Amino acid sequence: MSEQLREPLIEVKDLRVEFDVRAGIVKAVDGLTMTINRGKTLGVIGESGCGKSVTARAILNMIPKPGKITQGEIIYHRRLTKEGQPGLDDVFDLTKTDPDGKIIRSIRGGEIGMIFQEPMSSLTPVYTAGAHINEAISLHHLTPVRKVGDQLAEQVMAHRKVTKEEAREIAINMLHRVGIPKPEERVDSYPHQLSGGQRQRVMIAIALSCEPAMLIADEPTTALDVSIEAQILDIMRELQESSNMAIMFITHNLGVIASMAEEIVVMYMGKVVEQGKVIEIFRDPKHPYTQALLKSIPTLGKKKTGERLASIAGMTPDPFNLPTGCVFHPRCPLFMAGRCDKIAPTWKEVSKDHYASCLLYEEA
Amino acid sequence: MAAVPQTQTNQVKSETHLLEVKGLKKYFPIQKGLLRRTVGNVKAVDDVNFFVREGETLGLVGESGCGKSTAGRSIIRLYEPTAGEVLFRSRNLGSDGKTKLVNLLDLNHAEMKQVRKEISMVFQDPINSLNPRMTVSDIVAEPMAIHGLDNGRETEEVIIRLLERVGLRPDHLRRYPHEFSGGQRQRIGIARALSLNPRLVICDEPVSALDVSIQAQTLNLLQDLQKDFNLSYIFVAHDLSVVQHISDRVAVMYVGKVAEIADAEELYSHPLHPYTEALLSAVPKADPLYKSERIVMQGDVADPSNPPSGCYFHPRCRYAQDVCKLKTPEFRELKPDHFVACHRAEELTLEGI
Fold first, then answer.
1. Which of A182, B204, B255, B263 could, after both became Cys, cross-link B312 (CB 3.0–4.6 A)?
2. Tens-place pLDDT, residues A32-66
3. 269-298 in B: which are within 8 Å (CB) of A?
């Protein structure tokens, strides 16, 4: 909770991801900077197409073609735990790793787990739930082997891959932890035999089976009912507490983010427009986009007055033809003619630990 | 209103009922073996009762698989209901400008076609519900063509007015669905639904595929259109806050049955069914300081092909008693306009929002 406990795990600095398509270049992420701390949850919100998911993929260095990271770095503070001793941080830039190389492959799924939005299409229909989890475990999970030296009783630790039986054991245990009833039977079920909520729980079990240092959850509950959603959020919080896992939580559901995240990043057209503590963002949003976004959701339990929802005028701009100045200006209710359409706003600290990029907070 | 005797209020009310669904059932048979013998039924909609008043919005909520979409589709016989009555006050089948109360399930093909002019539908997925090979003008004009109301020039003007009404431009007429964003596509779907001047629109999850800001625009549009054309809506959705925002009354469904119906504000503040209470408590609030007392529902939604005995909700209900396992609760009006199907509704005091 306190300042001293903030330990960065991933630092994204001035990241730019471009997609070179026939119609031109799309800057999916443009100058993004953010930090994900150990054991904390960072919420990323924004409309579809604002670059949330591309950022997540950039961290795992798996931007689909024709996308490319053209600028910036993603610093990963890797902690290699050796038996018994706290490991030293090995700090390196993920964007510099070979996307097919050994290092990034041991990080993907092993040290950084990911949950995708659509549980039906992210599980292979021809494998059982157990097989999916086993795959993750056998790729990443290494078991220490004790060899007892005969003379000096010296313990040598080596790592070997888990056996099939052990993997199955772990898979059942994981299914149990994510709250799937009768895990011993369910481990042999195929995805189509599971309900939507169960499938998503299998996805979470896969992501968590290797005890990752960070979990990227890309709209993990969007396709689910509220009751299942609540269960899954609970599981994620529990596991975060027990293993000090960092979570990058991508969503456009503001209710979910309010209950999950400590810090929030608001994205619009590939840029971060506002960042701050969750309470600050909800109580005192600074950027007109955040304000509009918060007003556009119907609040549960509010007295009904037949009022209209405040909606953001217009649509997200054409990515090939971004507006000049501030990208939000054509839709902004506080548009200042002559300034917002000419000057691009800079990143300003508007109050303590609360940043926004808007000309309202800059001197003329 | 409470002072008026029960029977009298019911009579007064039924005058204004545009649609009344009584004991509606839709079973999908499960067939097995070489002879495709029916070995069981998926009771998607099982004895559902509700009514819609003229000009109001009835929200239908529930978890996925609870039969809310099936109920909506069974009303206009997109699915042929297994049993029940769907009473509709039809203008087209009445004479001398008067309406006639008809049971939709008794109508023949020609009569049903007349009624379909009065009841239209907006679908969930704006990508799949629009034909990719048809232009916007063809899509919006199709219902008119089917009902023999297409007369060239004039129709085009009507379409242009409709498109402008839903926030699209006349130059969009010759474009194809793929050229539009999700929100715009949903507007095309809405324009199509309104092209025959319906009185009742069944909206099947119309905003769940849309982004928050576009969702707000679409909800506002639906509300404006309701005012302008005096439409009644059946609004099927799983998002409780959206349903609360748009609905006058809300029906909560669980495994093919209606658990509770009440005025939206009443239902959210004073739920009478434990399922409604649990569902409301599960909704994450957009307020970081709100610490909710969440009620955990054990297990999954019951299987509609093999539902539990008694009250379908009893295995997940924290108030369940022996009677809940044995007897199906009666769907009754506990307070004026507040219907509930729970044995213990009288004695329980449940938390709303």
1. B255
2. 999 999 899 999 998 877 888 899 989 999 888 88
3. 269, 278-280, 282-290, 294, 296-297
